[in-house]
Amino acid sequence: MLASTDIATPHGSDVTKSCRLVVRVNDDIALHPHDLYMSLIANRLRQWTQPDWLDVGCGWHFDWQWEHEREKQTLSKANIVGLDPDWQAVSRHRTITKRTVATVEALPFAAGSFDMVTANVVVEHLKYPSLAFAEIFRVLRSGGWFVFRTPSARSYFVRIAQRLPQGLKVWLASRVIERRDPADIYPAHYRANTSEVIQEICRAIGFREVNVVVTKARGVFSRAPSLARIERAGSSMLGITEGNLIVEVCK
């Protein structure tokens, strides 16, 4: 269930300093945040015919590893470029053929090059999110969208993760929680991971609208339903229920 709340007001009469923030909450824990992210991207793609699209932090695949066909169908609807600072990951991307090695903080593209920029679980890794967002703003065309998914800093999982050494986080993610490849686990900073911080960065840069869907935490042990229910009950009692932020930002 989605509930909308407009929690922003214009800053004075200066339109360039206003950035409207709309926050919705998605209570459907059966829907994985990644699939919600994919549906939002599919909806955005419908507003253009073969748009220019940049996926930052693209790694080596865009969709779930087992959803190669959906990935190919989605990416075929745009002229897509993949960018990642990890040359080993981007060089083996299974679908994107136009690829470049660079950081989000220094995008090697001219101003107004893209209709859409996306980032899937990338923003939490940004050491300088304001600089990265400013670069994304620069390369977007007027009316373009920046769409991203990132963990909420209010998630109990993130609050715990911030206190763990990187080696332990890699071990947990690769051996216990998700069975991820250790090479795909990067240090995280969580510096733009609340709706309010994202809005403030976007307002300062010049974006005009921020739409956020806050998903509920599904539980670290989501593959074990009984343990996941205990996790969710505990987090609810503590008032720590946020999971991911699915964000759409308009220039």
- Order of strands in the sheet with the most strands? 1-2-8-9-7-6-3-4-5
Give the topology string: H per helix, E per strand.
EEHEHEHEEHEHHHEHE
Number of strands: 9
Q: Any idea what the radius of gyration is?
A: 18 Å
Annotated CATH homologous superfamily: Vaccinia Virus protein VP39
Q: What percent of residues are in strands?
A: 25-35%
The number of domains is 1
Structural commentary:
The protein has a single domain, classed as 3-Layer(aba) Sandwich (Rossmann fold), CATH 3.40.50.150. The protein has helices at residues 33-45, 68-75, 87-90, 129-139, 156-161, 166-177, 195-205, 225-238, and strands at residues 2-6, 20-26, 52-56, 79-84, 98-101, 114-120, 140-151, 209-216, 242-250. The protein has a nine-stranded mixed β-sheet with strand order 1-2-8-9-7-6-3-4-5, with helices on both faces. The chain is built from eight helices and nine strands. The model is unreliable at 1-15 (pLDDT under 50). The two termini are 28 Å apart. With 251 residues, it is α/β, with parallel strands linked by helices.
Structure summary:
This protein is of the alpha/beta class and 251 residues long.
Q: Can you give keywords for this protein?
A:
31% helix, Rossmann fold, 251 residues
Helices and strands in order:
Blueprint: E1 2-6, E2 20-26, H1 33-45, E3 52-56, H2 68-75, E4 79-84, H3 87-90, E5 98-101, E6 114-120, H4 129-139, E7 140-151, H5 156-161, H6 166-177, H7 195-205, E8 209-216, H8 225-238, E9 242-250
